[in-house]
């Protein structure tokens, strides 16, 4: 296992303290605490129904928590909407990416943040150059950023979305299952970029159900089950085997194995 240098703990960029979320009588999250430091990857793992989606929506400003608090740079905040979260440097890249498939790569890169000149004319050449430069820095060398983004591979589209968030000032990236629908090679591309973002000092929250991908880049691991935190461990305190076992159900899996033995 690769060792990584540890630095003294500083004030987290974003922190959750005892966050809970209810929808009527249904309790989706219960007493969730986690913190994200600059230049660290916090992996949030869990099966379907574990509460990962609710956690994303809470962090992204879509749904306010029912109880507990969110802090940015040590100060309590309330996100009224996703724009509030963005204004605090919290950017979310969803699994469906929210790109316009037939629009050029550069238009998607600047979607909603277009650079304009006199009379509102788009500064197309400048936006093309910035897009190509940022993607090349991240290992995506496109000959022409005017091709429709739908023509890119799934991994490349993920990198476009992540590079866009970084360019527009994200301090924390929340990535929703970025490798879920990707093959090995494309997943590797995305994981390399997550490591590159971490090395640039960006805090990353990686939401995933894949313990192998999490362990490749993660510095801290939080495992959710039915809305509750059942594991909270630093990289040096948990092996891939332990993480995989916990993800698979741990003791429940052993009980099932005994039950099915003939």
TrEMBL record:
Keywords from the named record: ATP-binding, Nucleotide-binding
Pfam families: ABC_tran
GO MF: ATP binding; ATP hydrolysis activity
Cross-referenced SUPFAM superfamilies: P-loop containing nucleoside triphosphate hydrolases
The keyword Cytoplasm is assigned to this record: no
InterPro entries: AAA+_ATPase, ABC_carbohydrate_import_ATPase, ABC_transporter-like_ATP-bd, ABC_transporter-like_CS, P-loop_NTPase
Domain ABC transporter: 14-251
SMART domains (UniProt xref): AAA (SM00382)
The keyword Nucleotide-binding is assigned to this record: yes
PROSITE patterns the record matches: ABC_TRANSPORTER_1 (PS00211), ABC_TRANSPORTER_2 (PS50893)
Annotated protein name in UniProt: ABC-type transporter, ATPase subunit
Organism of provenance: Corynebacterium glyciniphilum AJ 3170
């Amino acid at each position: 296992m690769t060792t990584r240098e540890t630095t003294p703990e500083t004030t987290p960029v974003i922190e959750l303290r005892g966050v809970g979320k209810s929808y009527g009588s249904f309790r989706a999250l219960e007493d969730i605490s986690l913190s994200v430091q600059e230049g660290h990857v916090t992996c949030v793992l869990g099966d379907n129904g574990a509460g990962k989606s609710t956690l994303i929506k809470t962090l992204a400003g879509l749904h306010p928590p029912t109880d507990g608090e969110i802090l940015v740079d040590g100060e309590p905040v309330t996100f009224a909407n996703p724009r509030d979260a963005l204004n605090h440097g919290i950017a979310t890249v969803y699994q469906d990416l929210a790109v316009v498939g037939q629009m050029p790569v550069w238009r998607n890169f600047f979607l909603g943040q277009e650079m304009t000149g006199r009379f509102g004319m788009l500064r197309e050449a400048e936006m093309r150059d910035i897009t190509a430069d940022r993607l090349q820095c991240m290992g995506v060398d496109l000959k022409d950023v005017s091709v429709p983004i739908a023509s890119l591979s799934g991994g490349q589209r993920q990198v476009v979305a992540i590079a866009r968030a970084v360019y527009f000032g994200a301090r924390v990236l929340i990535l929703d299952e970025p490798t879920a629908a990707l093959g090995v090679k494309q997943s590797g591309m995305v994981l390399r970029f997550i490591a590159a973002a971490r090395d640039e000092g960006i805090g990353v929250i990686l939401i995933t159900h894949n313990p192998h991908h999490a362990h490749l880049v993660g510095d801290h691991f939080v495992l959710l089950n039915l809305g509750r935190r059942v594991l909270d461990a630093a990289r040096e305190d948990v092996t891939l085997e332990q993480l995989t076992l916990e993800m698979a159900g741990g003791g429940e899996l052993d009980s099932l194995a005994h039950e099915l033995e003939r």
